[in-house]
Amino acid sequence: MASVTSKTPMLRAAAARGYAAHAQAAAASRGSAEVQTTTLPNKLVVASADPNAAVSRISIVFRAGSRNESADNVGAAHILRAAGGLSTKTATAFGITRNIQQAGGSLTTAADRELVTYSVAVTKDQLEVGLKYLEATATGQVFKPWELAELTPIIRNELARLPVEVQAVELLHKAAFRDGLGNSVFCPDYLVGKHSSETMQHYFAANCTTNRAAVAGVGVDHQMLVGFAQSLTLDSGAGSENKSSFNTGEVRRDAAGSRAAVAVGAQAVGWNSMKEAMAFWVLQHAAGVGAATKRGANNGVLTKVLSGVNSSALYNGYSDNGMFGFVLSGDSKDAGKAVEAGVKALKSLSVSDADVARGKASALAVVAEYTENQSTLLHQLGEESALLGQVYKKSDLLAAVSAVTTGDVQAAARKVSSSKLAIGAVGNLSHVPHLCELH
């Protein structure tokens, strides 16, 4: 079924023109049969792969996630996400929905702490229609006050349905990073319905520029994608880089009921330190990311001590920083005991050759599956293009994981063991220890 779902917005559109144009000679281009990337003179990065796929999928990605919010526009990234598909300078919300549905496609928006992403998926014979309304949605939104007002019940409903584990991880980010990466991907409840058209226009203009953008495609000719990217009407400008440092801290939110969710994090690294980041990623898989079979045990080196609760190791890697730890949920008494056990395990975290081999095998399987699925491949292309300015081929990623040694993972574990901690907790916290009580 065709669909238009919401999760982000942007500036102005310029219809279907010159999509088959070739890159200018000044563009820096590199690539292979697997992945092609081109950097335009205006710094916008274009990446593509698998041009013969039956369905064309294209994303316009901006470094406009919640880490870029300031005190006067907290929650703007969430509003951008929710406003995706609303009226633009060249199309009404009804027109966008009707035309995408008639083309049998889908138009979606998504946002996280670093990125806001607009994506369209259509069959190749409907590509011109898909690109037209993708461009309109991603570059031409006008944020009409009455349309923004209509988002209020939608956003409140989304906030009311957030799993407690997600809430705990959001609180953990606030405790660990405060501003920047500490900004939640969800609008604070007290600010829902308070973002004006002017606020949204200013946020878009400041963060959605060519220097902060990428265009990614799967199932589309690379040179045609370059022509499409060149035609986008976007301002230039580097914007501001909101750096975040890791801090010790604790954010707790009491709630009714008998259950609690707790997330604990230690200092890690970001993807700008690729080799170390890969070691932390393997460590996460060795530490435990869930049972491998339906009735299997979650027997990672970390999660095996978190008895009586649902748990998973946690590695949140960002472009310039990262956090490693665990998240758990369960009955308040069980959660309290598990937190104590989990912190002790973090403080003495170590891995064997067998643990690393298991972690690498799990990570390799994730890479293979992720890059063979066209939707997740598109996400990878857009994310790496926008944040790193380059794209890693599947073979590069597999080689990077394979190159991780036991010594690399042990070094990551030692970094975690010696790090200060941050905690986010929500629910019945009567039995959940405070950070100062954990040793």
Automatic annotation (TrEMBL):
Peptidase M16 C-terminal domain segment(s): 197-361
Domain named Peptidase M16 N-terminal: residues: 45-189
Subcellular compartments: Mitochondrion
A GO CC term assigned to this protein in UniProt: mitochondrion
Record-linked InterPro entries: Metalloenz_LuxS/M16 (IPR011249), MPP/UQCRC_Complex (IPR050361), Pept_M16_N (IPR011765), Peptidase_M16_C (IPR007863)
Stretches that traverse the bilayer: none
Keywords: Mitochondrion, Transit peptide
Pfam families xrefs: Peptidase_M16, Peptidase_M16_C
GO molecular function list: metal ion binding
PANTHER family (UniProt xref): CYTOCHROME B-C1 COMPLEX SUBUNIT 2, MITOCHONDRIAL, METALLOPROTEASE
Protein name: Ubiquinol-cytochrome c reductase core protein 2
